[in-house]
Structures are given as C-alpha cells and as structure tokens.
Specification:
Layout lengths: L6 H12 L15 E3 L4 H16 L3 E4 L5 E5 L8 E7 L2 E5 L5 H16 L8 E6 L12 H7 L4 H6 L8 H7 L16 E9 L4 H5 L3 E7 L1 E10 L3 E2 L11 H18 L6 E10 L5 E2 L2 E10 L2 H22 L2 E9 L3 E2 L2 H14 L3 E6 L5 H4 L5 E6 L15 H18 L2
Parallel strand pairs: 4-6, 4-7, 7-17, 8-16
Antiparallel strand pairs: 1-5, 2-3, 3-6, 8-15, 8-17, 9-13, 9-14, 10-12, 11-13
Helix pairs in contact: 1-3, 1-12, 3-12, 8-9, 10-12
The protein binds (2S)-amino(hydroxy)ethanoic acid (HGY) and manganese (II) ion (2 copies).
InterPro entries: Amidase_Cbmase, Bact_exopeptidase_dim_dom, Peptidase_M20, Peptidase_M20_dimer
Keywords: Hydrolase, Manganese, Metal-binding, Zinc
Cofactor: Zn(2+); Mn(2+)
Length: 418
C-alpha cells in the first residue's frame, strides 16, 4: 500500500511535546532533558495540547477516572471490538523525548496516514495515552494500564502515596479526574488486537542494522522497597565500634544486589537500585535510616525469584553482622508477556510489504502492552535508538526510523481492523 507518513509534521509534534517539561540544563550544548511527571503542570499542558490534535483528526475523545485518554477513529462497524494502539507521554526525571511519546504521536500519525489514503477501517482504531507508565511519582509503573487490565486493586491504587505526599486519589482529583477507579477496568474483549510502537531502548537493532524490531516477549519486572534501620548519632562523638550505620549497611546490600544479578550468569537478569533516601541526611549525623528501591527483571520470572532469594539471604547476613533491621515491601512482581503470533505475523507482513528489514526480539523494558496483554492479544513494534540509549537526555531516534515505525504500524492497524 502506498502510505506516505508526514514525517516532517511528526518530528515537529515530537519537538513540541518535548517542550512540555520542567526546564533543566544538562550542561551539554544543544542537549535538552525532558521531565514530565504525571499530573504536574507539564503533563496537564501536554494532555491539553494532545487533545486538540486528536480532535483535529476527527477522533472521538474520552478520559477515564485516572486520566487514561482514548481517541477513537470510529470504524464502519462500530459495534465490533476495536483495534488499539498507543503508549505514554510521562517522562522520568532528566529523560529523553522519545520514550513513550513515539507511540502516542506515531499512533496518531499512523491513523492520519490511513485517513489520508481514504481507507475506512471496519473495526474502530483507538489511540490510547496511558496515565503514569513511569513509577516516578507513585512508585509503581504502568498505573493506568494495570487498572485497565484489572490487575491493580482500585482502592490500593487510590491510596498510593506520591513522592509529594498526595495520594493518587487527591492528585487525580486535583487534576480534574473524578470518578471511581473501578470503572477504569476495560470490558471483556474491549480490544480485538493491540500494537504499540516504541523505541527499542536497547542497542540491538542499530548494532545489527535492522530497521524494525518485532517484540515477541516483554520481560518480567519486579520492584521492592527496603528500609534499613540502624542507630543514628553524632558524627564526632559516636565511636566506630558503637555504630550501627544504616547507610554502610545499605551500601553492602546494594553491592550484594549487583552480585546476585551477575550471579545468574545470564545476560537477561538485571537489577538496579535507582533511589536511596538517607535519614536524617546531615553531614555530621550518622545515618539512622535508609530507604532504597530495587528494580529487578528477567525474561524468566523463576530466575528473577532466585535472584531475590540470594538478595534476601545476603541481607540477613548483613543485618546480623551490622546489628541493623531491614524490612522489605513488595511494590510489584509481574509475569512476563508473550505476544500474539498472529499480530507478530501481521507486523512481519507489513515490514515485507514496505521492504523494511526486521527481526523478532525480547523487550527488556516494560511497557503498557505488558498489561494490555492480560486482556487482549498484543505485539510491539520497535525502532532503533542511537547507541541504545534511553532514560537519558541524549536518547535519540532518526526521523527516518520514526517514519518506518509509523508506516509499519499503519499497515498493521489496517490489517487488524479489517
Ligand atoms: O522502566 C521501564 O522499563 C519503562 O521504560 N518505564
Ligand atoms: Mn520509560
Ligand atoms: Mn516507555
């Protein structure tokens, strides 16, 4: 099919969306970091701007009680379950401008490209922008899609305490999203199929010179909070033998986590401690308490659980030797997702039709598709990103790569919506 994606406009829209951010200097000439945390002004302005684009494309727009946004191109047979696509536009602190946003603006451009060639899909095609895919504010990733899939208890979700001490309920209501979170759960077979476009957030496509990645599996993410309670005191007067320094204990725990991930000997196991809070946090006061958050993932959930077992036994030894108390809270421990072979083949067909090289692959990052996979057949389309970099201001994808991804998505959506 002769599809002509308006790549110049897509690039412009990506650049405009990147402008909705807390401004911060990265210190590197011409480099722009993006931070867009859910329900902040930047997020709300971005949402309002996107809504105008959806309406200009003639899409029917609705928002649910947590702010997931649905923009529907009504098909000739509107009663049929729709085909879905989309991603997120929230961005972690000091991030790039492509993670998630390509799936929303690229999804919109795929719909507009199909509209331009005058096709009328039988099934409606619905573009989704998920609320809070990133765990930045409420500590758990994929908040909006978990609620859509019915895998997160609405009362537990509303009680989640944000980093600014507002609960999700308070924050969403302040942002204008009222209503009962239980209504966010999608009706059974709401989508007949789902495809998400995203940058790879890894180096394989670029390294192998392949234009499109077709995701067959999404790795299983888990995250935990550990609180280490020791004994505080005066940095001058409290002598070393009498100390139970919570930060020294935390440091040993962090290195034990790294050792446990490396210890599986399998490249698919990853573990990260990305946040550490030290109390009281004064240069001349021995740390009495440390809160740290662990993100651990593997393509095999069983191996991930083994890593957790090794981490827990290391913690027990550190606790005893250092005389500290460590408590653990599980935030999430999710199963991996397997893509629908039919949708993988539809994407493969589109790549062949468009003359684009492609390969099947695993997604090591998690995505909202991980949870949509609980309620619909899914697959994902990856495009290369420079040096595989993501969650950094220098995240980058070429306009040609974005154009290729959108062309494949457009053909796939049309095929699925027949
Ligand atoms: O962390 C992730 O995998 C996703 O980018 N939020
Ligand atoms: Mn991300
Ligand atoms: Mn993402």
């Amino acid at each position: 099919m002769n599809l002509s994606v308006n790549a110049a406009r897509l690039q412009q829209e990506m650049d405009t969306l990147a402008g909705f951010t807390q401004v911060e200097q990265t210190g590197r000439e011409g480099e722009r970091a993006v931070t867009r945390v859910v329900f902040t002004n930047d997020d709300m302005q971005a949402r309002a701007w996107l809504r105008v684009l959806y309406e200009e494309a003639g899409l029917q727009v609705r928002e649910d009680a947590v702010g997931n946004t649905f923009a529907r191109w009504v098909g000739s047979d509107p009663g049929l379950p729709a085909v879905g696509t989309g991603s997120h536009t929230d961005a972690i602190p000091h991030a790039g401008m492509y993670d998630g946003t390509l799936g929303v603006l690229g999804g919109l451009e795929a719909i507009r490209t199909l509209q331009r060639v005058g096709v009328k899909p039988r099934r409606s095609i619905e573009l989704v922008m998920f609320t809070s895919e990133e765990p930045t504010r409420f500590g758990i990733g994929c908040l909006g899609s978990r609620l859509m899939a019915g895998t997160l208890d609405p009362a537990r979700a509303d009680a989640l305490l944000g980093k600014d001490d507002l609960t999700l309920r308070q924050a969403r209501e302040n942002a204008g999203f009222q209503g009962d979170l239980a209504q966010v759960k999608l009706p059974v077979s709401y989508y007949s199929a789902w495809a998400e476009l995203h940058i790879e957030q890894g180096p394989l496509l670029e390294r192998d010179g392949v234009q499109i990645g077709i995701v067959t599996h999404i790795a299983a993410p888990a995250s935990y909070r550990f609180t280490i309670d020791g004994l505080g005191g005066h940095a001058g007067a409290l002598l070393m033998p009498d100390r139970r320094d919570a930060l020294c204990a935390a440091s040993e725990i962090i290195l034990a986590i790294e050792r446990a991930a490396l210890g599986t000997g399998v490249i698919d196991t990853v573990a990260t401690v990305g946040t550490v809070k030290v109390h009281p946090g004064a240069v001349n006061s021995v740390p009495s308490r440390v809160d740290l958050e662990l993100d651990v993932r593997d393509t095999e959930p069983g191996r991930r659980d083994e890593v957790m077992a090794h981490i827990r036994s290391a913690i027990a030894e550190i606790e005893a030797r250092r005389g500290v108390k460590v408590s653990e809270t599980e935030i999430n421990a999710d199963a991996p997702a397997t893509s629908s072979e039919a949708i993988v083949e539809s994407i493969q067909k589109a790549c062949k039709d468009l003359g684009l090289t492609n390969r099947r692959m695993v997604s090591r990052a998690y995505h909202d598709s991980l949870f949509i996979a609980r309620v619909a057949p899914v697959a994902m389309i990856f495009v290369p990103c420079r040096d595989g970099v993501s969650h950094r201001p220098d995240e980058f994808a070429t306009v040609e790569a974005m154009r290729d991804g959108v062309s494949v998505l457009a053909e796939t959506l049309l095929d699925l919506a027949r």
